[in-house]
Amino acid sequence: MSSVRKVVLGLIPADGIGKEVVPAARRLIENLPSKHKLHFDFVDLDAGWGTFERTGKALPDITLEKLKKECNAALFGAVQSPSHKVEGYSSPIVALRKKMGLYANVRPVKSLDGAQGKPLDLVIVRENTECLYVKEERMVETTPGKRVAEAIRRISEEASVKIGKMAFEIAKSRQALRASGAPSIHKSPLVTIIHKSNVMSVTDGLFRESCRHAQSLSPSYASIAMDEQIVDSMVYRLFREPQCFDVVVAPNLYGDILSDGAASLIGSLGLVPSANVGDNFVMSEPVHGSAPDIAGRGIANPVATFRSVALMLEFMGHQKAAANIVTAVDKVLSQGKILTPDLGGKSTTNEITDAVIESLSN
Fold first, then answer.
1. pLDDT above 50 (res 327)
2. Which domain does 326 fall in, by range?
3. Are residues 104 and 276 in contact, defined by beta-carbon separation less than 8 angstroms?
4. What are the required cofactors (predicted)?
5. Number of domains in the chain
């Protein structure tokens, strides 16, 4: 008989509805059926704009220390960053990705069977540490009263090859699932590289070249088809023919924009999960933001957070527990009886959490 496996999970609700969907996810995890032989311990951690206002740090040193020394994985809620410069403030989620070595942001977007509109089943693999998100900006005054803002866009061969390899690994894994009978709209694997090298020939040219090189790193990638799309053309095709894409790999900014756009095709950001993945750690987070307009009202959609937990478990090797969560969530959504307002329903966060928990064992 196999022994129970212990997982120490850091919980970082952060801001806004993160304080509602992360506790809902904890309740879901605590109700996973015992057949999965998983035991979870939880470490509550602080980060975010509210933490910055209280302490002067958006990412306290103790949070980072406990993640590195005590936790196997983490779940992040949402961050409410100001739209203007605030001295001393920097996004904690961006900092966590860099300091924890989480170089890949993986965002699956899949429509439910029988849903209206064009079917889609794709994964956006976004480089997580570079591009314009290095946050190296400056303001210069060229002549008195005339300001110019500048930003560094950094693309390295090392990071681009790593994210390219991750994309091919995910394509290979998805094809293995199809071969074992998992339902899919795709018959064969495809990796699509996103760039704008017709304009930014140096930075995007290096990203394109490095991702193409990644295919040569393993004989197992040889059977995976590869193509590429200019980013503006990709936006057009994503909305016109989303069913054509399997695994999409992109630099940081393009991946961020494309994944939010893809979310609109299945109805709500409240449905889309993500995982920040490194070589030895995974931190999952729902794609949606802090949603201050509904924070505290008890109507936030926890589905993206539940799916993020499943994605985290999948990357940790607990595929059966992950599949249990995905199936339970899909069952509740397909029934259409218990839905939060963003999906046209009137249910609360707690009501949809109760329904998914009930479906775990059915």
1. yes
2. 5-115+266-361
3. yes
4. Mg(2+)
5. 1
